[in-house]
Specification:
With 228 residues, the chain is α+β, with helices and mostly antiparallel strands. 33% of the residues lie in helices and 27% in strands.
Length: 228
């Protein structure tokens, strides 16, 4: 992988139409060494960096930038990874989403979209959240281990089309009862499936024919937040 200083030096030389010979002469360095620095296969020594700054850099801001780049190139990969993680975390914004009641992972819940409150999220980028997204609290254990009682799920309200939600976990209302289930379309029927392996306790809800008009999808789950 090319060093950051190598990228900087190559760009600097191209912008100013400088040759390797010219850089070599001005920094009192061998042609091969400067070539290695430009290719990014070697990290420059401090004496070269300071000679380069003295000959070519006119302000302290640029000088410090070069010193930082070289210091970064010398940083172990493990620490670089941590630094990148910090950068990504800083890009994430603290956002809030409404919690629109509860959806049952069991026998159905009637309190969807009542008692609205807000949940603050501080570890997710707002760029990843679709417009109009909201949260729902899970009740019951029929979706365990995917979801547990008390979990909060983030829903994409635009994800409602058959092709999009096939096999996805969604929040749906059926005969005024609100469920959170995995959706499967098959042979003109809709199955609301529980992930819990106890099928005697959590059997599928099968909807077909004229009953389909009483089924409404509110969106698919894009992320869940554990209660603990």
């Amino acid at each position: 992988m090319k060093t950051e200083f190598g990228k900087y030096l190559e760009k600097f030389m191209n912008q100013n139409s400088y040759t390797l010979e010219y850089i070599s002469k001005q920094t009192e360095s061998s042609l091969s060494v400067v070539g290695h620095y430009r290719k990014g296969i070697r990290i420059p020594k401090d004496d070269f960096v300071e000679r380069f700054i003295q000959k070519f850099v006119k302000n302290e801001v640029e000088a410090n930038l070069i010193r930082y780049i070289v210091a970064y190139d010398r940083t172990p990969d493990l620490i670089k990874k941590k630094l990148e993680e910090v950068k990504v975390e800083k890009k994430s914004k603290i956002i809030s989403l409404p919690i629109l009641g509860k959806a049952a992972a069991g026998m159905g819940h009637v309190n969807f979209e009542d008692n609205v409150k807000m949940e603050i999220l501080n570890s997710i980028s707002s760029d990843e959240i679709p417009r109009g997204a909201f949260m729902v609290e899970v009740t019951g254990n029929s979706m365990f281990p995917t979801l547990s009682d008390g979990d909060l799920v983030i829903l994409d309200p635009k994800a409602k089309d058959k092709e999009v939600i096939q096999g996805k976990v969604c929040v749906l209302t059926y005969h005024d009862q609100t469920y959170i289930k995995r959706v499967k379309f098959q042979d003109g029927t809709v199955r609301l499936i529980s992930d819990n392996l106890d099928k005697k306790k959590y059997s599928d809800i099968v909807i077909k024919d004229e009953e389909l008009e009483y089924l409404k999808c509110h969106g698919s789950v894009i992320e869940s937040r554990r209660k603990h």
